[in-house]
Amino acid sequence: NTVLKAQGYGIRVSTKANPVVRQCSLTNCDLGAVVVDSDGLGIFERNELSSNKLGVVIKNGGRPTVRLNTILNNSLCGVRVEFKGLGLVEENEIVGNGEVGVSITTGSDPTIKNNTITGGSGVGVRVNEAGGTIERNRIQGNKVAQLETKGGTANLVRNDIRRVSGTSRDS
Asked: What residues pair up with 138 in beta bridges, in sequence order?
């Protein structure tokens, strides 16, 4: 399936809906490719989410599994988890996104695991007044910072964080 130039979101999941979305391409959606809201669930695997404002938005108790996707060249953010969003984001290629590759804010508590987060024009991973586990990600080559935290209680476990020059630090 292909969704091109959707007004609003390409796919919206809410109120305990639990779809399986595989091998879809969502591009040029005005607000974002996928939003999981209001206790929505779902499995999103092997999709390409590119050239949207936002790739994936998880909020208000949304708890999806977002796995093995290519989340590419979204103008604002690759993955945004906000307003007590939850869920598992793992084994994705999150590449070349705008302000931030992965943003976790406002009381959210997701697991971000085994992703490659690279080549963004801003910050690789930003945590602002939130929690969650950020584990075994490869974060490199983002222009402003690889990781930024402001408040909150995020657990950083065995991430490979590299500057453009190639020096690394495991957190």
From this structure: 116, 160
Token duo for residue 10: 């390409």
**What b/e string do you get for 12-40 counting C-beta neighbours within 10 Å, with b at 16 or more?**
bbbeeeeeebeebebbebebbbbbbbeeb
Quote the CA–CA distance of 77 and 52 in Å, as a whole number.
9
> Could you tell me if 50 and 27 are in contact, meaning their C-beta atoms sit under 8 angstroms apart?
yes
Give dist(CA 130, CA 6) in Å, integer: 30
| 3-state SS track over 102-143 | EEEECCCCCEEECCEEECCCCEEEEEECCCCEEECCEEECCC
Q: What pLDDT tens digit does each residue of the chain (171 aa) get?
A: 777 777 899 999 999 999 999 999 999 999 999 999 999 999 999 999 999 999 999 999 999 999 999 999 999 999 999 999 999 999 999 999 999 999 999 999 999 999 999 999 999 999 999 999 999 999 999 999 999 999 999 999 999 999 765 444 555
Q: What is the DSSP letter of 39?
A: T
